[in-house]
Amino acid sequence: MNNAFKKMSTPYLVWLYILALFPVAIMFILIFMNNEGMSLDEASFTFSNFAALGEPGNIVAFINSFKFAIISTIVIIIIGYFVAYRVFRSKFNNKFFVLTILILPMWSNLLLRIEALGNIMEPNNILVDLLSKINIDLYINIKGTELAIIIGFVFTYLPFMILPIYTALEKIDPSLEEAALDLGIPGIKKFWKVIIPMSYKGIITGSILVFLPILSGFAIPKILGKGNIISLGEVIERSFMNMSYNIGSLFAIIILILILGSIIIINKIDKEGELLL
Fold first, then answer.
1. Distance CA 223, CA 225 (A)
2. Cα–Cα distance between 80 and 169 in angstroms, integer?
3. pTM for this structure?
4. Are 34 and 44 in contact (CB under 8 A)?
5. Which of 201, 115, 206 is nearest to 158 (CA)?
6. What is the DSSP letter of 19?
7. Who contacts 150 (Cβ-Cβ below 8 Å, separation ≥6)?
8. Residue ranges covered by each domain of the chain
9. Is the CB of residue 224 less than 8 Å from the CB of residue 118?
10. Distance between CA atoms of 114 and 134, rounded to whole angstroms?
11. What are phi and psi of 250, to 5 degrees?
């Protein structure tokens, strides 16, 4: 049986090595190379590429990305927990259907969703036109600002927070809540003393699933920021577009290290992977 599973996993392992591990190995080598493009004719070993970490523009990109990631994650935790808790406490017979509705936007193309959201953030948009027909004047012009980028991140990654939190809430033993009530703990105190601590795994897992894509994302800041606000993802994109593969690889490896560290954290708090199902 084990031999059969090994044979079945061989195509997957080959695919993983070729399309995942091999490119990562190439990027890691490029970090320490001084060459033009992908040519290795006059390549030499160097540590000079690390100087890019101290460049003012890249420092601003780091600060912006971490700022967007932290603020957006906090907002998503608050909204996501509220939604997950309301679904958890609801009397719907089919809660899975409700969750499906919440994740439906994820089934559409990300760029189309962001472009549509960006249109609503500009002065002349479909929402303004519709409201003007019922004599409601609305003026929106936030595209190209940090607020627009944060709204875009929250809109895009909210489902990644709702699902883990809801899964954690579903695993809470109802008898614990009954015991809290028997001990005279009121509803609000019960929520903070019992519900929140018992669902912290979902919050941590959701936070990691949300924080990292926001930190490394470039499409949302580029579209909703209109090029006015640089992010870490945009630095990586520009580096590869300008054939500065060494610098792009350096920042990409940094993101990869953060991702691997997050996977280790998830494995420690959720060893069976229940919250990601």
1. 6
2. 12
3. 0.82
4. yes
5. 206
6. I
7. 68, 71, 72, 75
8. 56-106+141-276
9. yes
10. 27
11. -60, -50
Integer Rg of the chain from CA: 23
C-alpha distances in Å from residue 194, one per residue of 60, 133, 169, 170, 255: 41, 49, 11, 13, 35
Interatomic CA distance for residues 27 and 199, integer angstroms:
38
Per-residue pLDDT of the chain (277 residues; tens, 9 = 90+): 456 666 677 777 777 777 778 888 888 888 888 877 666 677 778 888 888 888 888 899 989 999 999 999 999 999 999 999 888 888 777 778 888 888 887 788 888 889 888 888 888 777 777 777 777 777 778 888 899 999 999 999 999 999 889 988 888 877 776 676 666 676 677 777 778 888 888 898 888 889 988 988 888 998 998 878 888 888 888 888 888 888 888 888 988 888 888 778 777 766 655 555 4
3-class DSSP state of 193: helix
Which CATH entry fits the domain spanning 56-106+141-276: 3.30.70.100, 1.10.3720.10, 3.30.9.10, 2.30.30.40? 1.10.3720.10
Question: 151 CB contacts (<8 Å, ≥6 apart)?
Answer: 117, 121, 142, 224
Tell me, what amino acid is at 196?
Answer: I
Helix axes of 232-241 and 56-89: crossing angle, nearest 10 degrees? 130
Give the pair of three-digit tokens for residue 75: 């907002």
Distance CA 98, CA 209 (A): 21
| Closest by CA position to 105, among listed 140, 141, 182, 157 | 157
Q: Which amino acid, residue 174? A: P
Smallest CA-to-CA distance from 161 within 110, 214, 223 is with: 214
Half-sphere exposure of 196 (CA within 13 A, CB side): 10
